[in-house]
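Appendix B.2, paired examples.
Example (i):
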Amino acid sequence: MAPLRDDLTNVRARPAPLRQRAAQRIAGLIRVGTLLFTCIALVDAQAQVSAHAGEVATPHGRIHYEVLGAGPPILLIAGGPGSSHTSLRPEFDRLAASHTVVYFDNIGRGRSSAQLPVGVRHSPERDVQDVESLRVALGFERIALLGHSYGGYPALLYAARYPERLSHLVISSSGHGAVAWQRNIDNVNRFIQNQFPETWARIESMRATGVRSCAEEYQELYGHGISSLYWRNQAARKMRKLFSDAPGDQHRMSVYCEIIGDDPEWRVGGAMASMDARPLLAKTRVPSLITAGRFDPVSPPAVAYEIRDAFPLGVAHVSIFEESSHRPWAEEPEAYFEQLKRFLQRGVP
């Protein structure tokens, strides 16, 4: 006889009554409709917001930036590592109603310089320099800083190094260093192994021949298995369109592999292998908001609380979004941006 907990699991898995299934379907359609309305509103709002773009010259290369709106400045660091600022648009454009929103591409990504000088390597620490160079060039005394996914890693390092230059810090679906990134890798591999065993078998065969996860064929196979992990609402995933499909705005695998290592879907290496922001945050007193989606295995809620606990008591706050995975700002935009608005106004969520 199966254990009781397995019996309970089986009961939960049985088909719901017709009325219940109909109610669930209606609720799902309402959520999709809300997201569609939000996207339309964002496009309309975007057309009404003043914008300009420019470049900042630095010793390491050119930094491309785009500015929307007016008000207290907030800089946004994209994820990846290797993604461009367009991965955050258009959702964060709504902040332009009350803030000067500064999107930018770290060097090696998007529309910034494609290469670093000889002898300079990509790393979270080096990406911090781009943020400071941009702040100085744009003449901001203090900024709010938001880092999404990988972007949260250099954002934490920036806060530890330049706390006097920050009014607010937002760490969105992110981690604190090598330990958190390895947890991300292990969670994703466990998901593929359990949910896509046929894909996992092909990965194991590929690895047996010496192919590692920076290889194009490995990434293609791997990406097919994990695409659904980043979204709780699969209808929202299918509905969201790329802000830009220009070749220059696509993810840079070379940057990813330099920062995470030559086998990034198996073991943390590269520049990330030595990173741990937590000891650096012990004396960092910047009002901080740490956000996570309840169903995000990439940057799970447990890691959000670990980041909070690295700050002095009462400095950082955690907000968990109950119907989201890795992108609460796309899956629960109204709740996410209302929380963010309150935090940027008052310093607490």
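Example (ii):
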Amino acid sequence: MKKHFKSILITLCLILTSQVKALTTIRETVKTVDSIEIEIVLNIPDGKGTFPVLFYVHGGGWDHGTALKTPGGPPLVSASTMCDNLGVVFVGVDYRCKNQNGDFDKALQDVMDVYNYAHKNAKRFKCDFKKIGFAGGSAGTPLSAVAAQKISTCKLYIGIYGKYDFMNKNLGGYWPSQQTLEKYKIVTPEEQKRASAITQIRKNPPATLLIHGDADPTIGYKQSVEFAAALEQHNGYAKVLILPGIAHGFYKEGSSEAYISATKEIMEHLIQFFKIKNPNRQGVIDALDSVVNEVKKNSKEKQK
């Protein structure tokens, strides 16, 4: 392997209610651009064979990191819960944010380069590229949603409190600020269109699940409603889960009932559209219960 590729393999054992599940985590450098490393992080089931692949683009407002270090690209927060139980490779996608002099076009190129790197190493990573999907949370949704429309083989998409339209100013939410739009070069009508997945819906769009809270002040839930309607107008499948009274940023492991509800919806979406045979649903549910109970236990101990 080339010297600039870093590979760290860690076998994680997830203790569930009734059994132990294992996965392997791999972290490697995809490329170095402007002295900045763009990484890929994979959670891979320990079973034999190849598996469907879900690429996740993280949020964070396009902030964080330093001039020479990205915030990193973690897989979906619930990946460790579902990886081995469902038999899915979860990929965390790294990209340049504002602090790394990134902009939307640079970041989208990083996302595509991570995708292509995984494709090139599909055998080593046990990836079945006939079954791929994209997902994103918050600021990761514009990038992931556009990528899902660009890649014709993408089977499914999952967006969590996402933004899919930079052109319509009447959908609610204060993010992104004008300063962020200028820094990430989403100012002109052409730039806004290029960053809006709603303007780039392809023929036979990926089956889409959109999750949003109706009390979200950061990105209005109408973004998800309008994107779903546009997908349906293009004869696509779109399901919207609107969570009453839930604000932005709720999708954190063990943080709330909203997290559990959303994870179960994500699980069923993956099973249905990846056509997963013999999924261990109960294993996922047991793992969710275990995490929530641990969070509650720690919370009680802090209150003592």
